[in-house]
Structure formats: structure tokens, C-alpha cells
Specification:
Layout: E1 4-7, E2 10-13, E3 16-17, H1 18-25, E4 29-33, H2 34-45, E5 53-57, H3 64-71, E6 76-79, H4 82-90, E7 98-100, H5 107-116, E8 120-123, H6 126-138, E9 143-150, E10 172-173, H7 177-186, E11 190-196, H8 207-225, E12 232-234, H9 253-267, E13 270-273, H10 277-280, E14 284-295, E15 300-304, H11 313-317, E16 323-325, E17 335-341, E18 350-358, E19 365-368, E20 390-394, E21 397-402, H12 407-413
Parallel strand pairs: 4-20, 5-6, 5-13, 6-7, 7-8, 8-9, 9-10, 9-11, 11-12, 12-13, 15-17
Antiparallel strand pairs: 1-2, 2-3, 4-14, 14-15, 14-19, 16-19, 17-18, 20-21
């Protein structure tokens, strides 16, 4: 469920008419619903064990207003860079609710995370373990770590967001786990606290989770027998969301929660989960204006003012997003088939191919749904196009939580060397 609904024939974000935001902010723009963020967090968190840490995956949506909304509900953060760590702390997420993931942590990032007192590092390789130990030792600290083990489980999702098979860059091979923990135990700057696993994103079946979690429980038991302190199990994220297409809907979070509860009971450890997409995706939309309708020889093109620089998921992942009109069409409205495209000078700049939609005209507003995760965070200024601003709605109020960059702002980012000033 989300809080983008038609009211008296106009699509609204909670109690706000999207046309009013468009008139005030301009198009394109991202719009997030506070009520949807809060609901999705609670739906995910409530079935979990009481002591579980829900660490929102900042890479899904890093807007500080979104992070602060979730922090007020008790959310922690899963970060994968020093910049995300800074954002999480700025949003009021306590350091002892922050976990640091990612395969390429730098020494500077390690020092910043250690200095802030984060909850744990999810370590992804033996060289990273040794580097982290050296950094922590130089600071007279011990870094709390889990090791991300790769259970070689196929998550049955898109190849570019599969992370748990043997062919990905993430984690250490299952067969190396015992040796990696033995290494960690010998390093002076390391304090072993648990195990980490993450098998992918947008997973729409429960079986891959069950398979991976069962392997982790077995590993936890054998590591304890070897003398390692396994008090936490980080299960990652990855639970999929409905993008309104022909695929089977993802499982209910309550069913996922039941699996997690069983893991907690069998493993005797605190559970950490890292949801991102599940909370943010359907809490956000991208609103755009139809610039032109172009009649081609074999295709009709609806050309929007939003482009792949604003939302790259369709171009990168062939992702499906529902597209709806902001003004509700009548039930008998004529439909046409369009390729819905943007103005970026790339053939890949396409949001939908051969999509049947109510007949569109220049000036119409459309909403690209389920865009709250991996939307604005992946935006760029390609073609020197300012990325879409972001707006947060709460009830009948809205606020711009990231403004649109001006062309002057673009120019300020560049520097001309002295030898070109003549």
C-alpha cells in the first residue's frame, strides 16, 4: 500500500495535489510520502524479534529528510561509504545503530567509522580484515566485525543485483569462512561479533532466504565450537517490492519475518536486517511533464522532461515502473501505445516500451511510480541536466528536501586553469 491516490480526479501525495507541487517546484521532481515510509518500516519491523536492529540501507535513498523520518521510528542505518556514514549521523541515527558494509572501504573511511563508534563493520575480504586491524590498532581500538560469507545461493533476481553466488565480488567463499575467522581472531585490532550474509536485491521468493539463512545458522554453530563469539547475525536485505507488472508479487513481510524469527531462535543471536527498497520504493514517485507526442512510422513516442539521468533503473536494469496520469482519465478514455522516453541523447533513455496508456498530450503530467528507491540516489547531471529535486510530503504539507541545482551551480563546480584565462 502507498499513499499516492486519486482524489476528485487528481493524483495526490497524501493530502497534497501533485499539480500544486509541480506549479511550485517545476518538473520533473521526486515526491516522497512520509505516511508510506512510516507504514512500510512498521510492516517490516513488527514481525521481527524484539531486539532486532533494522538498519535501513542508505544506498536505496540517502535523502537526509527520509533518513530522519526513519530514525524517529528507531531505524538504524546500513552504509557503504564515508559519505553515507556522514549522512546517517547527520540525520540523527545513533552511531551504535550503524553498520558499515561494502567491498572497498578506505583507511580514511575506517578511521571515521571507528572514531564515531559504529556498531559493526561487515568485512568482505581477508585483506580488508588486515587493513582494518592496522587502522584500529593505530587508534588504540578494536573494530567490531562480522565477516560477510557468500552462501552460493541463487537469489533468482536480476543478474546485476545478485550478490550471493560464487561469481560475485561480494563476501568471501563459504569454504574460506573458517580460515577467515581464524585470521580475524589472531588480529589485534579485531573483535569478532557475528556473521553477515546478503544474497541480492528485489528477491521475490522466500526459498533463497531460507536456504541462505539455514546455512548461516549451521556456520554460526560450528564457529562457536571453534571458540568464536557469534552474538549477531546480519541477514542483509533484498526483499522485493511490487513494481506493478506481470511478475508474481513478492512475499508478505510477515512471512519473511517468520523465517527471521526462526533463525533467531535457532542461532541464539541478535538479528540485524538491512531493508532498503522494501521501505522506500513505493514511498516515492517521479513526476514529469509530457513535452511532445511524436508520431513515428511504427511507434508513438511520449517525450517527457524527465530523463535517464533522473531515473536510470529502466535503462540499467530493464526495470518496469507503472506510469499513470496525474489527472485521472475517465473509464472510457481512449488508449494508445507509446514508447515513453526522455530528452537525454541516448537510445537507452526510455522509461517504457510499447506501453498502453490513456492518450497523452503535450503539457500532461505523469507519475512514474515506485521510484523512491534507487532513483534520486543514482541520478546524474548527464547532458548537463540538473537532476530532479526531491520533495517530502506529510499530510497536507510539502517541503523541498533537495532543491534543483541551477545552471550557475553547474558552473561553480568547474575550475578553469590559469593558462586558459588569457
Amino acid at each position: 500500500m502507498n499513499h499516492f491516490q486519486y482524489r476528485r480526479g487528481i493524483l495526490c501525495a497524501e493530502d497534497v495535489d501533485l499539480r500544486h507541487i509541480a506549479a511550485d517546484v517545476g518538473t520533473p521532481f521526486y515526491c516522497y510520502s512520509t505516511a508510506t515510509l512510516e507504514r512500510h518500516y512498521r510492516v517490516f519491523a513488527e514481525p521481527l524479534p524484539k531486539d532486532a536492529l533494522v538498519a535501513f540501507s542508505v544506498k536505496a535513498n540517502g535523502n537526509i529528510a527520509v533518513l530522519k523520518t526513519l530514525a524517529k521510528l528507531g531505524a538504524g542505518a546500513d552504509v557503504v561509504s564515508g559519505g553515507e556514514l556522514v549522512k546517517a549521523l547527520a540525520a540523527g541515527i545513533p552511531a551504535d545503530k550503524i553498520v558499515f558494509s561494502g567491498v572497498g572501504k578506505t583507511k580514511a573511511e575506517m578511521r571515521a567509522a571507528l572514531g564515531s563508534g559504529i556498531y559493526q563493520f561487515n568485512v568482505e575480504s581477508e585483506p580488508e580484515l588486515e587493513t582494518l586491524s592496522a587502522v584500529a590498532t593505530a587508534m588504540n581500538l578494536r573494530a567490531p566485525i562480522t565477516i560477510r560469507v557468500n552462501p552460493d545461493v541463487d537469489a533468482k533476481t536480476h543478474a546485476k543485483i545478485t550478490t550471493g553466488t560464487a561469481e560475485t565480488k561480494f563476501g568471501i567463499p563459504w569454504e574460506h569462512a573458517h580460515a577467515a575467522y581464524a585470521l580475524a581472531a589472531r588480529l589485534p585490532g579485531i573483535a569478532i561479533v557475528g556473521i553477515d550474509v546478503h544474497i541480492g536485491s528485489q528477491i521475490t521468493e522466500l526459498q533463497p532466504f531460507e536456504d541462505a539463512f539455514a546455512r548461516v545458522v549451521t556456520l554460526a554453530q560450528s564457529l562457536r565450537a571453534e571458540g568464536h563469539a557469534i552474538t549477531r547475525i546480519d541477514l542483509g536485505g533484498g526483499l522485493g517490492v511490487p513494481y506493478i507488472c506481470d511478475n508474481a508479487p513478492p512475499p508478505d513481510p510477515a512471512a519473511y519475518g517468520a523465517i527471521v524469527a526462526k533463525v533467531a531462535k535457532d542461532a541464539g543471536a541478535q538479528i540485524i536486517c538491512e531493508p532498503g527498497r522494501l521501505i522506500a520504493a513505493n514511498a516515492g514517485i517521479l513526476v514529469s511533464e509530457v513535452l511532445y507526442v511524436k508520431r513515428g512510422q511504427n511507434r508513438n513516442f511520449a517525450i517527457l522532461d524527465a530523463g535517464m539521468n533522473d531515473l536510470i533503473r529502466p535503462a540499467m536494469y530493464d526495470a518496469h515502473h507503472e506510469i499513470v496520469c496525474v489527472t485521472e482519465p475517465p473509464p472510457d478514455a481512449p488508449h494508445e501505445v507509446y514508447d515513453v522516453v526522455g530528452p537525454v541523447c541516448e537510445t537507452a533513455d526510455r522509461f517504457a516500451e510499447a506501453r498502453s496508456l490513456p492518450r497523452l498530450n503535450s503539457g500532461d503530467l505523469v507519475a512514474i511510480m515506485s521510484a523512491g528507491a534507487y532513483g534520486a540516489v543514482m541520478a546524474s547531471a548527464y547532458n548537463a541536466r540538473p537532476p530532479a529535486p526531491e520533495v517530502l510530503v506529510k499530510g497536507d504539507r510539502f517541503s523541498v528536501v533537495r532543491p534543483r541545482m541551477s545552471y550557475e551551480g553547474f558552473l561553480e563546480q568547474d575550475r578553469v586553469p590559469a593558462w586558459l584565462e588569457d
